[in-house]
Design goal:
- About 15% of the residues lie in helices and about 35% in strands.
- The chain is of the alpha+beta class.
- The protein has one domain: Thiol Ester Dehydrase, Chain A, CATH 3.10.129.
- The chain has an 11-stranded antiparallel sheet with strand order 1-2-4-5-6-3-8-11-10-9-7, covered by helices on one side.
- A hairpin with a 2-residue loop joins strand 5 and strand 6.
- The longest helix has 16 residues.
Length: about 290
């Protein structure tokens, strides 16, 4: 069951600010099969289980549920659901997952029904190296019989299509780390992750669209997949399978078949700083884990 609170007529006429507070409410049973799919993809990379002995799912496992399964006529050119229902009708064509802060309270468990309430929490306009961008904040609360299980504050950025400029990405990783794991993801792996998350964004599998429309040189690794691997390796390094909070920020696109490294540092006081970087040291993603 899903339910979306409709905006008032003023919002529908183009006042984007009035979309703040808009909600989408859904219920879903946490089934086993998506976790099997995730395990088949990442299981050989670390020993963090996708399901623990008590049925609790992986810290990034909630992304396998409440997927955007809209009817095909409601899918837009880029593969995402058309805007104007829950997501406001922003004019910028390109969409990117910029950041998430995930706070864990209790486990989501296999076989249990979970409620998710998604709320538009913020809409901000900023100007950066790549032009004007709109940052949309979405708060996702996962509950069971009124008990909060986990909460994610997600930031999605929208901007116009333009030619990709690799030179604008200058942030480099720290020179030292407590672990460094080489990785490289191919097109089959990206497709399998898109399949298990029902993510039809074409930049992750359609090379012609990616080059000709969104102006990237090659298909792009999903930010969620990078984040999952970054967290996995940090948890392995700490000798645990769970954490209290996971924050990550996308910095630079990572392209298919490109070698990269997942690294991190133990900061003390139960904190870990982690990142994904390319061979030249430039950062793809920054993360902080609170154990």
């Amino acid at each position: 069951m899903t339910r979306t609170h409709e905006p008032d007529s003023h919002a529908m006429q183009g006042n984007i600010e009035d979309w703040k507070g808009r909600q989408h409410i859904a219920k879903e049973i946490i089934e086993q099969w998506p976790l099997n799919g995730l395990a088949s993809l990442i299981g050989g990379r670390s020993n963090v289980p996708t399901v623990d002995l008590l049925g609790g799912i992986h810290p990034c496992g909630h992304w396998l549920y409440f997927v955007p399964a809209v009817p095909q006529p409601e899918v837009d050119l880029d593969g995402h659901p058309k805007r104007g229902k829950f997501i406001p009708p922003l004019p910028q064509a390109r969409r990117m997952w910029a950041k998430s802060v995930i706070t864990y309270h209790h486990d989501l468990q296999v076989g249990k029904q979970v409620d998710r309430t998604a709320t538009i929490s913020s809409i901000d306009t900023k100007t950066g190296k790549s032009g004007e961008m709109i940052f949309l904040g979405i708060n996702n609360r996962y509950t069971q019989e009124g008990r909060l299980l986990r909460e994610e504050e997600q930031t999605v950025v929208y901007r116009d299509h333009q030619d990709y400029d690799d030179d604008i990405f200058t942030l480099r990783a720290k020179s030292g780390s407590d672990w460094s794991v080489p990785e490289k993801l191919n097109a089959t792996e990206l497709f399998r992750y898109s399949a298990v998350t029902f993510n039809s964004h074409r930049i992750h599998y359609d090379a012609d669209y990616t080059r000709n429309v969104e102006k990237y040189p090659a298909i792009i690794v999903q930010g969620q997949l990078i984040a999952t691997l970054v967290l996995n390796h940090a948890l392995v390094a700490a000798g645990v399978t769970r954490c209290k909070q996971f924050t990550f920020k996308a910095v630079k696109p990572l392209f298919v078949d490109r070698p990269f490294f997942i690294e991190g540092l133990r900061l003390g006081d139960g904190k870990i700083e982690a990142w994904a970087r390319e061979e030249d040291g430039r950062v793809n993603m920054l993360a902080e884990i609170i154990l």
